[in-house]
Write a structure and sequence with these properties.
mainly alpha; two-stranded antiparallel ribbon; 6 helices
């Protein structure tokens, strides 16, 4: 019986479907860090200018400007809270060759704070862009009825509703799916929904729910 050449040795972790190696060379990591720092500066300055114009110039407080201010606030939260934590994690990995899940004195993982903020602000941005599209559509198709339909009071209520609904959607998986949590993902550079290695779900529906959220 003829035998073919032995199969090449499998790298450590190659057989694990859940293991993902996203490590880059030193220069690549440094370039990523510089890009993220520039991103923080751009997000902060751009959205701060938008909010300052909205609050300081009374003529710009139109219904559309309220929606733009809501969008700027969501982006600013990501730029001041979420991205800096990613920079910290990448810097820590670069300096010490390992990744740490920083915890507060109460024992909560920082990802349990930045994760819902990132997810909630993402939902806020999506819903606000949708509301801006609806507002523009009404303005174009019903220009004579625009002021009667699109009022500041209604816009403010819609903005409050979008923030409440968005952050509720961000927190629902933590409350409804057993053992699900937020973990820092070195590939996406963000805190994503996931399961601890020692508490993998027994039901496939829990995995589908985590992927969906």
């Amino acid at each position: 019986k003829l035998l073919g050449p032995p199969p090449p040795p499998q790298k450590e972790g190659a057989g694990d479907a859940n293991s993902t190696d996203c490590r880059l060379a030193f220069s690549g990591v440094v370039c990523q860090l510089l890009f993220m720092v520039l991103l923080i500066i751009a997000i902060t300055l751009g959205n701060l200018v938008s909010l300052l114009v909205f609050f300081c110039v009374r003529q710009f407080r139109t219904p559309q400007s309220y929606l733009k201010a809501s969008l700027a606030l969501a982006d600013l939260a990501v730029g001041l809270i979420v991205v800096p934590y990613s920079v910290y994690q990448e810097t820590n990995t670069l300096a010490h060759g390992r990744m740490e899940q920083e915890e507060s004195p109460a024992g909560w993982s920082v990802c349990l704070i930045t994760g819902p903020i990132f997810a909630g602000c993402t939902f806020v941005s999506i819903s606000t862009i949708f509301l801006l599209s609806v507002e523009r559509t009404i303005t174009v198709l019903k220009p004579l009825h625009r002021k009667a339909v699109i009022t500041k009071r209604r816009i403010i209520w819609l903005i409050l509703g979008s923030w409440i609904l968005s952050f509720s959607l961000a927190v629902i998986p933590l409350l409804s799916v057993p053992n699900i949590t937020f973990e820092y993902n070195p590939c996406s550079k963000m805190c994503n929904y996931g399961f601890p290695q020692d508490k993998l779900p027994a039901s496939n529906w829990d995995v589908i729910a985590a992927i969906y959220w």
